[in-house]
Every structure is written in C-alpha cells, then in structure tokens.
Design goal:
It contains four helices and three strands; from the N terminus they run αααβββα. By secondary structure, the chain is an alpha+beta fold. The longest helix is centred in the middle third of the chain and has 40 residues.
C-alpha cells in the first residue's frame, strides 16, 4: 500500500506544479487587463497577483501537510493525508475555474463596451449585427451551443491579447 502512495505523491506533485504555474499566470493576466481608469486603482493584498500568490502558498502548505500525513505509518495519518490531498486539489481546481471565469467576464465586458451588438434569431442560430467604421453593418452568423463552462474556458484560452 505504501508503494502505491509513494508513486501517487509525485503524480499529485506534477499536477500541483502545473496548476500553480497556471494560476499565477492567470492572476498576472487578470491584473494586467485594462479596465479603464488606472489612476484610481489601488493595489494591495486583494489584487489578483497577490491573492493568487496567497492561494498558491495555501495550496502548498496543504500539500506538505498531506505528504507528511501520508508518510506516517498510522491509519489516521493515512486518512488525514488522503483527505488533505483531495481538499487541496479541489481548492486548486476551484481557484483555476474562478480565475477563468473572472478573465472571461472581464473580456466580455470590454467587448460589450467597445462595440454595440444587436443579436437577432433563435437560441440555436444567432445573427449578430454590429456597426463598423463608416456605418456599414457587418452581419456575422454563428451557432450557439449550451455549454457555458467550456465556452468561456476555451474563449479564455484561445484569445490572445
């Protein structure tokens, strides 16, 4: 049993390193995102970069506690360690999903403010009419799918600023 757990610790560690790097990168992207008037903005512990750093530190503290507990020879330590790993992984997954949601919301809000859009059609097919340059309307037709979580995650990953 200990051999299997010792094999799983590096696997969880690789997941932890990748998620930590992704979370820190998303925090920097959110913090550098243009929101308009930057002169009134105050940066402190609640800013995205610092709060993601705090979240990563909390995650690694939970990870180290989980490693220590799993390496104990008692049943209680094993249960405590596995529970701590599970909680830490859920914490990291929730932080990543929340960061994707915040970035997606900020991009959508910026896009709505920049160009007025009129959407006409049924929920399956939407025709979008937006004003361009000299008043010439551009018509774009796209199919809308009912997968909101995967839509904003792929939008956030595919868009490059």
């Amino acid at each position: 049993m200990n051999e299997i757990l010792l094999l799983l610790l590096p696997i969880v560690g690789v997941f932890a390193i990748g998620c930590s790097i992704a979370l820190l990168a998303l925090g920097k992207m959110i913090d550098r995102f243009p929101v308009g008037d930057e002169s009134r903005r105050e940066r402190g512990l609640a800013s995205p970069v610092e709060s993601t750093k705090i979240a990563v530190v909390i995650f690694w503290v939970l990870f180290i506690i989980g490693c220590w507990s799993v390496l104990q020879e008692t049943t209680f330590g094993l249960i405590l360690g596995i529970t701590t790993f599970f909680a830490a992984c859920l914490f990291m997954f929730t932080a990543l999903v929340f960061s994707f949601a915040v970035l997606s919301t900020m991009r959508r809000r910026r896009d709505r403010v920049q160009t007025p859009v009129i959407q006409v059609g049924t929920p399956d097919t939407i025709v979008t009419i937006s004003q361009q340059g000299q008043g010439q309307p551009a018509v774009v037709s796209r199919k809308r799918y009912n997968h909101p979580v995967s839509s904003f995650m792929t939008d956030a990953l595919l868009k490059k600023d």
